[in-house]
Write a structure and sequence with these properties.
Layout: E1 2-4, E2 9-11, E3 15-19, H1 25-32, H2 35-38, H3 50-57, H4 60-65, E4 69-76, E5 82-89, E6 96-103, H5 112-127, E7 132-138, H6 142-150, E8 154-165, E9 168-178
Parallel strand pairs: 6-7
Antiparallel strand pairs: 1-2, 2-3, 3-4, 4-5, 5-6, 7-9, 8-9
Helix pairs in contact: 1-3
Length: 182
């Protein structure tokens, strides 16, 4: 993982994580207006419109500069194609943050979420000096759980019927990892 503070990018073997631009809104809308993505995410609306993308992207730079949250576009290192997003919140009071991600369905199964999430955890620990990073996923989405496990996170518990989605309740599985080199 190579972090470029000036350009606000993280480069991995296959990916460049960069801030979203307004010009990404069409691609974000295309990827996010997908029922299978919606049903596995906590906050994405469905249907997903261009206005949703624009209002989501609008505050990314301010949040980044204020060290409130870091929202990166997951893009192909060679072509620049947008695959998804990875985000890290910053809870300064407790020196931790939550990682979250989504990948467009057409790109599922290629390891992009894992590669991007590994880079974000390293960013959190090495660059931002977090004590802990945590993640949550729907129990009904084991693929997301596998990504989290590959990060070395440990299961901390399950919040039963924590979220209501489409008139049913979902369990939220919590995982976390402590910075071992503080």
């Amino acid at each position: 993982m190579i972090y470029d503070n000036q350009n606000k990018t993280i480069t991995t073997k296959r990916l460049v994580l960069r801030l979203f631009r307004k010009s990404d809104a069409v691609a974000v809308t295309k990827l996010c207006n997908n029922y299978n993505l919606y049903k596995n995410t906590l906050y994405l609306p469905y249907p997903y419109a261009i206005e949703d993308a624009l209002s989501w992207i609008e505050h990314h730079l301010d949040n980044y500069n204020a060290n409130k949250s870091y929202e990166f576009a997951i893009t192909d290192k060679e072509s620049g194609e947008l695959y998804g997003a990875v985000a890290l919140s910053n809870n300064k009071k407790f020196n931790n943050g939550e990682i979250a991600y989504w990948i467009g369905e057409e790109f599922w199964g290629n390891g992009y979420a894992t590669e991007a999430a590994q880079a974000i955890v390293q960013f959190a620990f090495d660059e931002k000096q977090y004590h802990k990073v945590f993640a949550r996923y729907f129990n009904s989405n084991p693929a997301s759980g596998r990504v989290i496990q590959k990060l070395g996170m440990k299961r901390e518990g399950i919040l039963i019927d924590q979220v209501r989605k489409e008139n049913r309740y979902e369990d939220l599985v919590h995982y976390g990892i402590i910075n071992s080199i503080e």
